[in-house]
Amino acid sequence: MDYEYLFNKQRELDAYIEDKLESTDRDDLFRKKIVALQVEIGELANETRCFKFWSRKGPSEQSVILEEYVDGLHFILSLGLDKGLTYAAGPLAATEMDQTDAFLELYRSIGAFYSEPVQGMYEKLFQSFLQLGRQLGFTEASILEAYQQKNEVNHTRQDEGY
After folding, report:
1. DSSP letters along 109-127, please?
2. What is the pTM of this model?
3. pLDDT tens digit sequence for 67-91
4. Is 98 exposed, middle or buried (0-12, 13-18, 19+ CB in 10 A)?
5. Residue of 21, 60, 19 lying closest to 43 (CA atoms)
6. How confident is residue 96, by pLDDT bands cut at 50, 70 and 90?
């Protein structure tokens, strides 16, 4: 995956959004982006329904799940940019986690990064997110394409006063 491209696209979107803000208190934005990421991951989990042991209804369509996934990617990239951190491609460790465990691990990584926003914690967060994407069956190409599409939507939303 071309992470440099993703960070550049996110940097452009963040600048566009923040240009319209009355206040750009960096600490306040960071806190709010952490919560936004947690909410987006919750929305993603809801679409997968992997934790809904009480329900027989299956997951949403893969396209819906992928769109929710890239919503999370937007915030992970943005959080890294806020702290001057990046991610470079690396091999993901093999894991026996199911989707529910992958979500739990991602939530742990978000909390750890919030408590200690340093490169090592950011890499762990990013890897947890990518591991979840693997569990969900996404390819790098599908993630990149969906990110580009959602990035355009997010620019349009800003133009329309979203």
Report:
1. HHHHHHHS-SHHHHHHHHH
2. 0.91
3. 999 999 999 999 999 999 999 877 7
4. exposed
5. 60
6. confident
